[in-house]
Write the structure tokens for this entry.
Amino acid sequence: MRDEAQIPRAHAGDTMDVRRLCLGIQRGDEASLTWLYRAWQARAIALAQKWSGLNSMACEDAAHELFLRVIRSLPELETTAALDAWMTVTLRRIVLDTLRSQARSDARTRRAAATSLAEPEAASDTSDLLLRIAALQELEREALRLRMTADGTLAQLAAALHVSPDQFYRRVRRALAKLRSMTEKDHD
């Protein structure tokens, strides 16, 4: 793993007009985006690798997510330092989201393994839970399924259902609340 000082700077010695670059990307100028991609792509992958220790494919995915965020929400920045800071902070958030997603996935796998070793009584509990889940509204069921089984950030999971992250989060919370309510009624 390389020391961060050994990773080439994206804009070392560059005197380009950062504000014009940002405005170009906001307007959808392909040349501006291409320039930024070439300047940052290798650096983003190297930084993601250094910070996380993820495999190269996951680091490439993080770099691609960075440029999706550039396209969607790059602010109008004035200096190279401000652009570097925005890119670095955004990439760091993406890497953290990826690590959290991976941790959730690992935890689900461990829970599934532990459940498969449990007593036969757990099988009837599982079938009861599946019946309760089937009673949920389709959108709640799908949001819950994605949240519990799919890897990705909240924004990525929400995009799969074509809703905002807030709407996705509310659907999952509503589904879990309904499941708790059904369970409490059965135990009363």
Observations:
- The two ends are 57 Å apart (CA to CA).
